[in-house]
Amino acid sequence: MTEFVAFLLPALPLLALLLTLLLGHYPGCEAIVRLSERIAASARPAFAARRRPPPRSFAARGGLLLALSLSGRAPPSAA
Asked: Rounded to whole angstroms, what are the CA distances from 19 to 6, 42, 71?
């Protein structure tokens, strides 16, 4: 019996969350909406207008850098 309780005790929060989701209530949904509204209200358009665009860089980065490093020369032409 104690093994069953030891197993069930950590699983209770997961079961409670699953039950609320099955009943159609999404915990934290109102908090996410309030937070997004607060972030949208605090965004100032004047700040966005003052920002300079980042400098253009034509150096290979990320996946392109990996692709260029792994690529060899082109295959010989069929002619």
From this structure: 21, 36, 52
